């Protein structure tokens, strides 16, 4: 097997596939991830070890993990009504040119599926989607797994974070913190997933603690880190501190507690307060 292959872990199938890329393209991609890695003050030894070998061969040194749900008309949305429409405007057999086309139009809520909340989602004048700094959207990732104890009214507590740090060490500054509750097991049952706004969430105290730890963003595998009855303190704290939130994360089970990276890439909409995105994890080989 050639060395310049990356392993793809899909959020939908969990099957491994291999992706071939042109050597030059791969090298450029590898170089930019490496340079980005070098620019970070805090990174794990595992990542450093992995990065140090990049120049001796052209292998992309990360497993690529898809953390994004697929958008379709049946998925759960915040309001419970259908938030995603994909319409065919022109179909292959109706095309008049020699080459046939299928042309589609999308109509959806901005906050649909796996998506980002920009700081402007909660307050006028704060950063909108297109203003988010890529340096914060590409970041080391910390995955905190509370799925063993989470339930529909579970709230991530300070104790959960203390326990995590006792086992895994202090959450490094500039990390993206992903809370895994296991709720994504209900993604394909939209009503169960929505559950009349009852799903695992995050406490204000835990959010404040993560902000003290200088997290760049917060992700969760539910509709929101806040249940409506709480008054949205996690949104207020994170977005109010010019940080971002990612909701409806898929497949976080594939990430280790520390040592991975996140690529949180929303579509770039002018004045966007929320946006659908492709969320990808990079796991050093
Ligand atoms: Zn939100």
Which helices and strands appear, and what pairs or packs with what?
Elements: E1 5-9, E2 16-20, H1 23-38, H2 45-51, E3 62-66, E4 84-90, E5 103-108, E6 115-117, H3 134-137, E7 138-145, E8 155-156, H4 158-168, E9 176-180, H5 190-194, E10 201-202, H6 204-212, E11 217-220, H7 233-240, E12 244-247, E13 260-266, E14 274-284
Parallel strand pairs: 1-3, 7-9, 8-10, 9-11, 11-12
Antiparallel strand pairs: 1-2, 3-14, 4-5, 6-12, 6-14, 7-13, 13-14
Helix pairs in contact: 6-7
Number of strands: 14
- CATH architecture of the largest domain, please? 3-Layer(bba) Sandwich
Major sheet: 7 strands, mixed, barrel
Uncertain segments are 1-6, 11-23, 25-55
Report the bound ligands by name, code or SMILES. Answer: zinc ion
Q: What is the string of SSEs from the N terminus onward? A: EEHHEEEEHEEHEHEHEHEEE
The tally of structural domains comes to 2
* Radius of gyration over C-alpha positions, nearest whole angstrom: 20 Å
Helix content: 10-25%
CATH topology of the largest domain: Glucose Oxidase, domain 1
Task: Assess the beta-strand content as a share of residues.
Answer: 25-35%
């Amino acid at each position: 097997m050639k060395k310049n292959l990356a392993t793809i872990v899909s959020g939908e199938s969990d099957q491994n596939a291999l992706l071939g890329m042109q050597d030059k393209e791969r090298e450029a991609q590898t170089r930019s991830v490496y340079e980005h890695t070098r620019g970070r003050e805090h990174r794990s030894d595992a990542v450093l070890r992995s990065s140090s070998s990049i120049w001796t061969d052209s292998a992309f040194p990360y497993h690529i993990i898809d953390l994004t749900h697929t958008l379709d008309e049946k998925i759960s949305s915040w309001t419970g009504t259908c938030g995603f429409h994909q319409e065919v405007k022109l179909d292959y057999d109706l095309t008049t040119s020699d080459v046939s086309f299928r042309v589609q139009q999308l109509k959806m809520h901005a906050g649909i599926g796996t998506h980002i909340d920009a700081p402007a989602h909660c307050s006028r004048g704060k950063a909108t989607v297109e203003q988010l700094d890529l340096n914060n959207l590409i970041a080391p990732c910390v995955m905190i797994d509370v799925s063993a104890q989470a339930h529909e009214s579970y709230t991530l507590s300070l104790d959960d974070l203390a326990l995590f740090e006792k086992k895994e060490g202090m959450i490094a500054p500039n990390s993206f913190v992903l809370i895994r509750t296991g709720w994504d097991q209900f993604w394909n049952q939209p009503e169960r997933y929505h559950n009349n706004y009852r799903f695992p969430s995050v406490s204000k105290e835990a959010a404040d603690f993560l902000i003290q730890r200088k997290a760049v963003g917060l992700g969760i595998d539910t509709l929101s880190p806040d249940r409506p009855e709480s008054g949205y303190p996690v949104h207020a704290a994170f977005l109010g501190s010019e940080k971002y939130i990612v909701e409806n994360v898929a497949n976080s089970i594939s990430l280790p507690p520390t040592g991975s990276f996140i690529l949180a890439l929303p579509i770039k909409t002018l004045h966007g307060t929320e946006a659908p995105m492709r969320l990808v994890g990079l796991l050093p080989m």
